[in-house]
TrEMBL record:
Transmembrane segments: none
Region (Disordered): 136-161
Biological processes annotated in GO: bacterial-type flagellum assembly
UniProt feature coiled coil, ranges: 88-118
Sequence ranges of Polar residues compositional bias: 136-149
InterPro entries given in the database record: FlgN-like (IPR007809), FlgN-like_sf (IPR036679)
UniProt protein name: Flagellar protein FlgN
Pfam assignment, any one: FlgN
Keywords (A to Z) from UniProt: Bacterial flagellum biogenesis, Cell projection, Cilium, Coiled coil, Flagellum
Organism: Planococcus lenghuensis
């Protein structure tokens, strides 16, 4: 019975490791600003997250089956009381590994989130620079009178050389 929990945890660990690889790739893609590659990676990541959810459902079912006679115990308490020491240590080891991977993935996702936020701020800044109307005149103006700006748009692309 404990083997089904161990197998489910191993599957979760494998998927988490793949997500960490994707997070590293995503960081490189964000830094290089390769949008098409980012879109493709996000789709692959979404598929992997669906697999993660399915694997977690399997883990839940395995834990429920294993703890069937002891529903009032918490999982950690139940594992501590397992008579099979090898199975107990295997489960505890894999749970610890899974927790470490989760922490690592969260840290990488936080970095990627900041990179994405910075990229969005850069894009918004560039859009403002390109589309904003001129706040100041770039040419010399006579101090005797204000010239009225030409009719129509006065954005960056509307100026003459």
């Amino acid at each position: 019975m404990p083997q089904s929990v161990i197998t489910a945890l191993e599957e979760l660990i494998s998927i988490q490791q793949q997500l960490i690889v994707y997070a590293d790739e995503k960081k490189t893609i964000l830094i290089d600003r390769r949008i098409d590659d980012l879109n493709e990676l996000v789709q692959q990541e979404a598929r992997l997250v669906r697999q993660l959810n399915q694997a977690d459902d399997k883990r839940e079912q395995a834990v429920t089956a294993l703890m069937g006679a002891h529903p009032s115990l918490r999982f950690h308490e139940f594992i501590d009381r397992l008579p099979d020491e090898i199975a107990r240590k295997n489960i505890q080891s894999r749970m610890k590994t899974l927790q470490e991977l989760l922490v690592e993935l969260q840290a990488k996702n936080k970095i990627n989130e900041q990179l994405l936020k910075d990229a969005m701020e850069f894009v918004h800044h560039m859009i403002e620079e390109v589309t904003r109307s001129r706040q100041q005149q770039y040419n010399y103006q006579s101090p005797h009178g204000q010239q009225t700006p030409p009719a129509g748009g006065t954005g960056f692309f509307d100026t003459k050389a």
